[in-house]
Amino acid sequence: MTMSDTYDTPDTRDMLDRTRQGVIGKPLDRPEGPLKVAGTATYAAEYARENCAEGVLVGATISTGRVRKINRDVVMAMPGVLGVYSSERMLRRAAQGTAGEAPEQDVSKVDFPMQPVALVVAETFEQATNAAKALDIEYEDQSGDAQFLPDAADAEPAADPIKAGDLDKAMRDAAHSVDLTFTTPGHASAAMEPHAAVAEWNGKDLTLWGSLQMLTYNVAELADSLGIDPKHVHLLSPYVGGGFGSKLGISHEAVAAAIAAKELGRPVRVVMSRQQVFQSIMRRSETEQRIRLGCGHDGRLTAFAHEALVSNLPGESFSEPVTQASEFLYAGENRLLAVRKSDITRLTAGSVRAPGEAVGMQALEVAMDELAEATGIDPVELRKRNLPDEVPGEGTPYSSRRLVEALDAGAAAFGWDKRSATPCARREGEWWIGMGVASAARVNILAKAEARVTLTANGHVVVETDHTDIGTGSYAILGQVAAEMLGQPIERTTVRLGDSRLPSGAGSGGSWGASSTGSAVFLACEAIRATLAQALGCASDDLLLQDGKAWAEGVEPRPVTDLLSEDLTRTGKIEPGKLMEKVNQSTYGAFFCEVAVNAFTGETRLRRMTGAFGFGRVLNAKTARSQCLGGMVWGIGSALTEELSFDSRDGHLVNHDLAEYHVPVHADIPDMEVILLEERDPHASPIQAKGVGELGICGAAGAVANAIYNACGVRLHDFPMTPDKLLAHLPDPFAPAA
């Protein structure tokens, strides 16, 4: 039996507030945590298959062109080498998220530097690595025709621009205005676990253990790449060591491993090196953004413009949605929002955590700070003053928006009232001290999802879906929803994930996993509750379940197992409906941070940071807090350290590992405070929850940048704000504080 819901009408029953088990929302530990800590959770590269060969990918040494000839003979004579593969079915590019089909194939055509063009397979990894380094490939080099830097002159609109009113007149008439240009570099997902796959065939059937985020789409992508029916593809991905968008779609290692395994008639493992992941999997596009804001003497926006230039490979439709939050966050009846895309010869640009808002909001929030200074209005107050009643230009209402509460709660907890509006007002030894603020906002999506729940005859709950857990807490959250709905202790709940033969969950990406697949679990449990109510002789809405017992008003409690003669299995299925169009159902928050800037070296140190967030029902306070913290760390990296550096002569990535691509480390991050603002948003999902995974990054870098200005009086519009950029603009280090 399947309980299905196309979500057209808000569910206002507050069902999870009426249940009595008391596990939903609690900061419960992740059930798989001990396995990960003990090293017994098996990741993709760790699956031991009998007689498994090892494959190593070989990257192109030209920027663009064609493979003319692969000289295999020398390599094939090397110890242990089993084969050299370069097929028209091997991928040139990784698939974009939710593609559901093969991306560009035929590796004989080179699209970007270090694109995988061949796979060397040997008995051992060391033999394959040695042979891959020795492989001689002849190319037809067409790099002379390549473009390695974005060019505004040849950029095309990524989508229809959003226009309203007379922007130019509004800017001319504004009492206060800013017209600013910002640049942000490309970013890498930099997940802890590299991309890996182990492929094994049994006749026509392929089993592949992979590091993947969205198995429903990945099955279709892999099958399409190989030219086989999806029913012959079985993907297993129970544990994933981070993804951040890089593992949304199928990529080179999986297809290459499958091709080689088929040819050799034995399992093949392909693990990308850290450098290969950086060089050939998704990057976040660099951006150039122009932001124009105009307001009256009261600080209320009358003009709002946000334009961006981004890039991607020729033929790729994805463009970083830089203005995504600008569409709904602040007022301004005279508007222009536009993104243009330039085709360049760099690895594919795609979804990296919080695509759009992550880089768009950090620029917007600096611009809002500069406007606040121009008006003499406190930056918190200016933001509150410019929250529209409905989405500008659309008339769409907001389902819920706790931004004012986030700003107020964050300001109170942080001590914002102690901030001086004058830069360079506070000095401690050789350090200038400053505070900054920024809003957070992120679009919310309800995605199609399916889950199966079984209440066994002995009272155990089993949740099954192909949904993945990429370190976000899916095992915990889905178990909590089921345990709460069915009145069973969490210890009697088992969650099975990451197997494509299970019902199709939403997958981990876009911050939609918990609320979407969680809603499917919720619906499956509702169907089970209806059957139990019938057996108990009461209405479903009157059924009470707690600690393995069932009762209703006037009905004596009975063990749930007394109502079961056999296992009771139901499937829940959720699909987005009209509500997605009727209301804007985004998530919101606010960041407050304090930094110290060295007066002599320009080094910036984050001293403390507070984030307050509202995202519907909190399903697990511990995992939600962890997600917010992780997002804030990403924002700190975007503000201070992270930058993909490409050689402008040939487009190759220069800093392709964690030694040179500087993600924040423990020493960079002080104690951080997270405030979770509980709310219920019945428009967002049946469980009244929204996504939180990416909210914590959206705007965080802007708060850091604003704090730097408040500390030392230097406004930079080029991220990251490294010491070399600050140093030339710092005030006299021997001058006293203002």
From TrEMBL:
One matching Pfam family: MoCoBD_1
Record-linked InterPro entries: Ald_Oxase/Xan_DH_a/b, Ald_Oxase/Xan_DH_a/b_sf, Ald_Oxase/xanthine_DH-like, AldOxase/xan_DH_MoCoBD1, AldOxase/xan_DH_MoCoBD2, AldOxase/xan_DH_Mopterin-bd_sf
Domain Aldehyde oxidase/xanthine dehydrogenase a/b hammerhead: 38-143
Signal peptide start-end: none
Region named Disordered: 1-31
GO MF, any single term: oxidoreductase activity
Positions with biased composition (Basic and acidic residues): 10-20
SMART domains assigned to the protein according to its UniProt record, in alphabetical order: Ald_Xan_dh_C (SM01008)
Name of the featured protein: Xanthine dehydrogenase family protein molybdopterin-binding subunit
Lineage, broadest ranks: Bacteria, Pseudomonadati, Pseudomonadota, Alphaproteobacteria, Rhodobacterales
